[in-house]
Input
Amino acid sequence: MNNGMVGGGMARRADHRVESGRVRAGPKASRRRKRRVKPQRERLLLHYPLFLPGDNKAARHQQFLRSYIQLGQWMLEVREREFKKRVAALRKRESEARRKHSATRSAIEILFDVAKRLDQPGFNADESRQRLLATGLSREELLTLFDQWSAASTQAENTVDSGDTCISHDTEKLRAAARQTRRDLKHLRHENVVSDAVGRLFDAAMKRSDEAAAKALHGAAQFACGLLSFLERQKPELLRPLARISEKWPVLTGLDPADADAAQAKLKRLQLGADTIQGRLRTERAFRESTPARAYARILVETIWTNRLLIPELSEKLRAMQIMDSEATIDFEDIPPWFKLIAGLPLFSTASVPLWAKAAREMLRAESPDFHTRPEWSSVRRAFSPHEKGRVQNKILDKITSAMRTIARGEPGEPVTQSSLPNSGNFLRIRQK
Output
C-alpha cells in the first residue's frame, strides 16, 4: 500500500512536470532550453541629445553621462599609455644623442692623432681604422667627419666646441620635455585615482544606500571645494581662464545669508561663463520664456554649443574606444548628420544667427520629426490645414529663428578664448561607425 502511494505520488509529479514542460523531450527540447535571450546592451552616446520643453530626459541624460564617463576613462587610460611611451622615447633619444656625441668626440680625437702621426715611422693605418670603427659610428658617419673636418685645423676644434654646445642644448630640451611629460603623467594618475575613488563612493551610496559612503563623498567634495576656494583667493589669474569657459563652478556655501553674496562676488571676479553660451545670450530675455519660440531658441542654442565643446576630444575618444575595446563588444550610436553643420559655426551673436538657425533647423527635424504636433504649437497648427506639415514646421522654425535674434548678444568687444572651441577640420577626423 505504501509502495502504491509512493508510486502514485511520483507518477503525479512526473505528469505535472510533463504538462509544465519541465521534462526534456529529446534533443530539440534540450536545444530550446539552452537558448537564452541576451539582454539588450546600452549603446554609447557620442553627442548630447536634444531635450525639448516637457521631455522626460532622465533616462537619455543618464545614458549620455554614463557614455561620457566611460569614454573619458578610456581616453585617460590611453593618454597615460602614450605618456609612458613618450617618456621612454625621450629617454631613448637623449641616450642616443649622448652616445653619438661621445662617439663623435672620440672619432675626432683619433683623427687628430692620425694627422699628427701620419708621417712618422711605424704608423699603423689598420690600427687607426679599427680604433675609428670601435667608436660605434658607422662608415658613412666616419667618412662625413673625415670630409668635413680637416685634420689639425682650428676650425675643426671650433666646430667641435659648437657641436658640444648644440648637443648640450638639445639634451636640455629633451630633459625639459621629459620632465613636463612626467609631470603630466603624474597629474593624470592623480586625476584617475580621485575619479575612481569618488566613483566608488558614489556607487556604494547609490546602489547599496551606504550612509558612510555618502558621508565620505560629502567630505571629499567639501575638501576639494575648500582647496579650490583658497586657490581662487591666492591665484585668481590661474583659475580665471578655466572659469571663463565653464558654465558651473563649485562653491562652498552655508546658512549665513552673507555667503550667497560672497559666492556671487567670487563668480564675478572669476568671470564665470564669459566665454560660454551663457555669456553670448541676453539672459534677461533668454531665460524669460514668455513664448514657446524663445524657449526652443535657447534650448537649441545651448544644445549646439554643448555638442561643439565635445568635438575637440571626440576623435580622441573614438580612438581610445577602438584601443580599449578592440573586439568591438560595445556599440555606439551613429553621429547625427547635423553634427557636420555645427563644427564650423562661428561664435553665437546677432550676426551669426542665420548660420546657427540653419543648424538648429536640421537638428530639430532630425531629433524630433513631429515637433509641430506638440501642444505648445497648437495655435500655429490652427492656421493651417491638417495635411500641411511642411508649412507648419517652416512657420514654427521661422518663429524660432526670430527668437534667436532676440536672445543673441551683439559681436563681443574682446576676443574670446578659442582653446575650447572646435576647429572645422576636427570633424574630418571623426570616424563614423
Q: What stands out?
A: The two ends are 72 Å apart (CA to CA). The CA atoms of residues 308 and 326 lie 27 Å apart.
